[in-house]
Amino acid sequence: GEDVEQSLFLSVREGDSSVINCTYTDSSSTYLYWYKQEPGAGLQLLTYIFSNMDMKQDQRLTVLLNKKDKHLSLRIADTQTGDSAIYFCAERTGGSYIPTFGRGTSLIVHP
Amino acid sequence: DTGVSQDPRHKITKRGQNVTFRCDPISEHNRLYWYRQTLGQGPEFLTYFQNEAQLEKSRLLSDRFSAERPKGSFSTLEIQRTEQGDSAMYLCASSTRPGQSNTGELFFGEGSRLTVL
Which among A6, A9, A33, B21 is least surrounded, fewest beta carbons within 10 Å? Predict the structure, then answer.
């Protein structure tokens, strides 16, 4: 079955880089996503990567995919207090329209 | 605002009562999803529509839960005889068919938070 695992908490200092990690089990995953959820709000899509890519960069965000190890990471450069939120990794296979989400990583940015 | 909207945002009810949530997706999106999120967990899939057809339901969707999307636009999620374990955030999302410019990624509403006393 499908399973997406994330560490639950990450604490960083403002201005440092944050790296949030995710592992998944479905080797047929085609699309991998990162979503951000602020308190009391819904999920906001941050970025995504196709399984045939190794890396994708979008401004302060860098996504790295190691398909062999089924490992996905999200790096946030120059982390700001406004980046404090829960970050969810999600995966979807090409044959399904239903993404599976991890439990989320709570990012705490302190001065 | 052309995002996904959900109503009500908060609902407090007594155990045994029925509740109904409404979701209005992004207008050009033909797929609509309901997820449930409890504290400390990620969204868990409940059900999904393509246009008016309900194509898949999770095992989490007991017979007390029913979802409809009668005209392929807005959707309702009804919970009958609510139980305390139903307390959660109910998230609605919509998407278009995957294509050259998108992966069929989900766009979420703000959620409807249910508290069952």
Answer: A9
Phi, psi of A61 (to 5 degrees): -100, 135
Which chain A residues have a beta carbon less than 8 Å from that of B31? Answer: 97
Suggest the residue from B9, B38, B103, B110 to mutate for an interface test with chain A (most A CBs closer than 10 A).
Answer: B103
- Per-residue pLDDT tens for B86-111? 999 999 999 987 776 677 889 999 99
Q: A83: helix, coil or strand?
A: helix
- The answer on pLDDT for A30 being more than 90 is no
* pLDDT (tens digit per residue) in B62-82: 999 999 999 889 999 999 999
Residues of B with CB under 8 A from a CB of A: 4, 31, 33, 35, 40-45, 48, 50, 56, 91, 93, 95, 98, 103-111
Which pLDDT tens digit goes with each residue over A65-94? 999 999 999 999 999 999 999 999 999 987
